[in-house]
Amino acid sequence: MTLRYWAGARAAAGVTEETIETGPTVGDVLDDAVAMHPDLRDVVAVCSVLLEGRAVGREAVVADGQVLEVLPPFAGG
Q1: Where do the structural domains in the chain lie, given as residue ranges?
Q2: Which domain of life does the UniProt lineage start with (predicted)?
């Protein structure tokens, strides 16, 4: 699956996106991402997560070929 990082998550991961083989849930994917990029731990704790463009929780099931996006809270107006 493709994991995309936005804003502060991108800075913490050090990459814009990566392909990873993990699952079966969003929580598993995020845990594996944090294991690969420890600086993501605090960021992921406050992020919204989109699976194929829809907001999901950690319990959502993922499949090969899907896109998961990690979006930290945005400031500004």
Answers
A1: 21-62
A2: Bacteria
pLDDT bracket for residue 18 (50, 70, 90): very high
Element spanning 26, H or E: helix 26-36
Is-contact 1 19, C-beta < 8 A? yes
Amino acid (one-letter) located at 19: T
- Reference 46, options 75, 77, 14; nearest CA is 75
> CA 65 to CA 9: how far, in whole Å?
21
What's the rounded mean pLDDT across residues 14-23? 92
Tokens of 21: 């083989």
DSSP assignment of 28-74 equals HHHHHHHHH-GGGHHHHTT-EEEETTEE--TT-B--TT-EEEEEPPP
